[in-house]
Specification:
The protein is α+β, with helices and mostly antiparallel strands and about 160 residues long. It is built from four helices and eight strands. It has a single domain, classed as Aminopeptidase, CATH 3.40.630.
């Protein structure tokens, strides 16, 4: 996938050099999330399945994912608070959808906090539906909802 312009930001593939910025974004959104070393390791092994949305030379959002047997797993999607509603999440999800389709995968899957109405609204608008729940999934004891988006019938 080539870089895609969107407003004043753009999407590009994430590289291991993006690990510090991604880890910092993730820590602000979800304290206790992946460390810089964990992010770097995933980016080194990720086979081009992670992207950043940046304005200028600074990542303001990211999506980390990986293909599994039949689905593309979204491991993390974070948009900096100041950049929300600017199209970053939609652009990143578009990159993941394109990668999943190119790989012939049947769906995208992810977990989301059960009490995050903004995230739930975003994923619903992107075609995801809840298919399960993981009780006390997060460190603070909150449940995670399992979401999936079937790719059958999508261009």
């Amino acid at each position: 996938m080539t870089d895609a312009g969107l407003g004043t930001g753009h999407v590009r593939r994430a590289t291991p050099s993006d690990a510090p910025a991604i880890a910092a974004l993730w820590a602000r959104a979800l304290p206790g999330a992946w460390s810089e070393a964990q992010v770097r390791s995933e980016l080194e092994a990720g086979a081009g399945c992670s992207w950043v949305w940046e304005r200028g030379a600074s990542p303001r959002a990211f999506l980390i994912g990986r293909p599994a047997v039949e689905a593309f797993e979204v491991l993390g999607l974070v948009v900096d608070e100041a950049e929300r509603r600017q199209g970053a999440g939609t652009a990143l999800m578009g990159a993941a959808l394109a990668r999943a389709r190119a790989a012939g995968l049947a769906s995208l899957q992810l977990e989301v906090r059960a009490r995050d109405p903004r995230a739930m609204a975003f994923y619903a608008a992107a075609g995801f539906v809840a298919v399960g729940r993981r009780a006390r999934y997060y460190r603070d004891g909150e449940d995670a909802l399992l979401l999936t988006r079937d790719l059958a019938g999508y261009g």
